[in-house]
Amino acid sequence: MNAQKHNEPTTIAMIAEFDPGFPPHPATNAAIQHSSEQLGIVVRGDWISTEGLRVQALSKYDALWIGPGSPYKNMQNTLDAIQYARENGVPCFGTCGGFQHIVIEYARNVLGYKDAQHAEYDPYSSNLFISALACSPAGHKMKVTLISGSKVAACYGGLQAIESYYCNFGVNPRVVPLLNSGALRIVGSDDEGEIRVLELADHPFFVATLYVPQNDSRPRAPHPLVTSFIRAAQEEHQGKGVQPMTG
Q: Are 81 and 95 in contact (CB under 8 A)?
């Protein structure tokens, strides 16, 4: 990697339909700023609508953040972006709607359920991997318990956290055994045992949270999970663990 590359900012593609009036979106910008200042690096984040998203254009970015605010304008483009990050070792962080679409992409392209669907797009699908939550956590702060030895627990430096939610959809309880059959590990749950955090252990950073950690980031107290994501993006930027693009 040449010196010019090292002098350029670390870049993050924030994939969602940006709405300045939707609190998690400006909070995402702020959280990136908080963590980058803590790390002493320059980070540029670009919001990219799913409508005209092309996977080929993502190669110039060091990491992808699949943001809140679904339904997205183009679900398939979103899934293609997640697949690109998953298969190429590109750091990928999915929060709220991003979590939900990471589940769908994994179900379709790894577990082989090509008709895996999200209730927000197709509520009458016969194979809902994401369904409406019986008790919505939207607007609440709730405890999350993490699995010891997971990457996410290491990011937090502990096994419990209190996090904020904006979502009304989550993993359909009926498909939990199917998710457990793959490498996408369930590493965080709420007090009822419902899935709140997923990770791929053999990936530089591939984490999905149903909550929105960016909402609890502060200038003097950046969110540890966001900081870990930004650090992974920086390492990608510096050329560590870069793999050739597939597909």
A: no
- How many other C-beta atoms lie within 10 A of the C-beta of residue 141? 12
pLDDT of residue 240: 44
Q: What angle do CA 15, 20, 23 make, to 5 degrees?
A: 90
Distance, CA of 225 to CA of 247 (rounded, Å): 30
Of the candidates 247, 234, 240, the one whose C-alpha atom is nearest the C-alpha of residue 62 is 234
Q: Which residue segments constitute the domains of the chain, with CATH numbers given?
A: 3-237 (3.40.50.880)
Q: Do the strands 195-200 and 10-15 form a parallel or antiparallel pair, or are they unpaired?
A: unpaired
* Residue 178, token pair as written in the block: 């199917």
Per-residue DSSP letter, 168: S
Angle at 85 between CA 79 and CA 86, to 5 degrees: 85
- pLDDT tens for each residue of 99-119: 999 999 999 999 999 999 999
Rounded average pLDDT over 140-159: 94
Q: What is the pLDDT of residues 71-99, one digit of tens each?
A: 999 999 999 999 999 999 999 999 999 99
Which value, in Å, is the radius of gyration of the alpha carbons in the chain?
17
